[in-house]
Task: structure prediction
Amino acid sequence: MLYKQSFLLVGMLLSLFLSSLRLSAQSEETFLRTYQDYQSRFYHYFIYESGDPMTQGSFLPVEYRKYRTDGKTVVYWADGVWWLGHYVAVLALEYERLKITGQDTSTTIRRLYSALMTFKRLDLNAEYCWGDTTADPKPNGFYLRDDVSANMNKEYSAEIISSDYVRCCGKIETKGNAPSQDQAWACYMGLALVNKLVGDTTILRLSRETALALVTVMQHIQDKKETWEIVNPITGSGIQKKEDIQWLRYAHAAIGTYLTGQEMTFGNAQSRFWKNIWKLLQNNFLIDKYGHFNWYGVMSISAVLNEVGGGKKNCYDWLVYSSDRIVKKRPDLQQTLIFPHLPLVNVILHGYDSNQPLPAAAYVSYLSTAPRAGAFRYPQQDTTFNSQPPWHSLSLFCPWQLRSEGEFNMLDYMLLYNAYWLVYKSGLPQYEQFARTNFR
Result:
């Protein structure tokens, strides 16, 4: 009798285990299908792919599309290079996933090449916006955030183009549509993933050239003094003052060296003083309740550099810990994990040498709640209709951004899915500890 009961118990446990495997497989199929749906949607409505990446306005992800009550469609850009950096990250991760699963990577490589050449195009053509009509422009690191003109309605299937190029180009005194350090730190992650995962020599060369340009544009020499600030080379006026950038000079110089393979010390950035300032920022960046981009900047740079803040022994655990602190500080953001992609990016770049990985369920909860038609946010009379949290804001990259109204590009899902798959589902030995959490 005891033997029979034991046999039944084993059978029940085996049945539960197999059922769990079937549900897991079904979930994975759903996540991939959602990715493919978003991918198709993105390339149809949220980016213009020309045959030549030097074509104006091409290969720049749309932040959101808004369908107005008058029947007209608006497409919007404000931080074009910021989004371009995340798009590069998506492509680098996608390339690795396709390579591991034995699929064709040629389209992904072509898109990566075009995205990286877009950085160069935005650099080469920036001076035109401030009245320099030099026949043979040279890249100097001073770039446009976007170059989408008002007459690109057909390319973007919209009646109205709302871009920094339309708003600012030709206005000599403007500081808009110009470089800023937050545009740069959003790109560091994408370039780091390219360097780590993509072996194509042309792609690697473009990635390093882009990193060099992003960092050097913040390095200014005046009266033989090296300062970290952004100055318009045409007008000589300041775009971003040294007071804004210098606090992160250690991190910018270190990440420039990491991404380019050449020493990028400038303005005494590697001194003990500036490194201590960087550590002070890491340990106190949440002192500002509404820090927003500053939070993302410190955490994303830390993830790429593998720099550990106080209280933890490795960067992955510190990123998770910092995320938990933001969740408690900002419950209004309605998320269980702030910037959920950053711990995964850190593991992909640098590995994990501790024993407290997040369970796969932490990411399944995000992926399984993504709206099949894409995230959206629309006001109507005295209320707002939006997709359910955490997919109710412009992006997981900026969950505080609740002013944007329309339909969003879902690059956040695509990046998160690719990173989740690599760490939890690829079966690569360096992620074995994470794969074991699938059954917790």
Notes: The longest strand covers residues 376-380. Residues 2-45 form the longest helix (44 residues).
